[in-house]
Amino acid sequence: MNIALIAHDKKKSQIISFAVAYQYVLQKHSLYATGTTGKMIAEETGLTIHRFQSGPLGGDQQIGAMIANNEMDMVIFFRDPLTAQPHEPDISALMRLCDVYQVPLATNMASSELFIHGLERGDVDWRNVVKANKDRET
Question: Which of 60, 90, 99, 125 is catalytic?
Fold first, then answer.
């Protein structure tokens, strides 16, 4: 699966802790991240991560383009809901694209852990379910 990892500045330490704890699951997937988040996770874990620009410089939009092209399977985005973000429209657009294209989006530690445990068990196979439903409709 292609998984995006994103974190606002005040949540970077949390996403790093998450990546360290679940490195054994994440290493089995293709990882993508916004600039600084990806660099910090890679330095701490040794995981291979394709890094885009930082969020405010277009990284959120680059991940959004992958979602729109059906090239992203899951987004883990540790958001900081208590701090105003100068690129809030980009964040809203990314979240909207996840909804439009049915891409699972975790925005905090609790939902991220549910997703990662589902990946570990092999429960997260939503693309095949969506494809099967479309095949039945035709």
Answer: 60
User: Angle CA(125)–CA(129)–CA(134) in degrees, nearest 5?
Assistant: 150
Residue 48, both tokens:
């291979």
Cβ neighbour number for residue 124 with a 10 Å cutoff? 18
Share of the chain above pLDDT 70, in %: 90
pTM over 0.85: yes
Is 9 assigned a catalytic role? no
- 3.40.50.1380, 3.40.630.30, 1.20.1260.10, 3.40.50.720: CATH of 2-137: 3.40.50.1380
pLDDT at 75 over 60: yes
- Going by C-alpha positions, the residue among 62, 1, 60, 5 that lies closest to residue 30 is 1
Give the mean pLDDT of 65-83.
Answer: 94
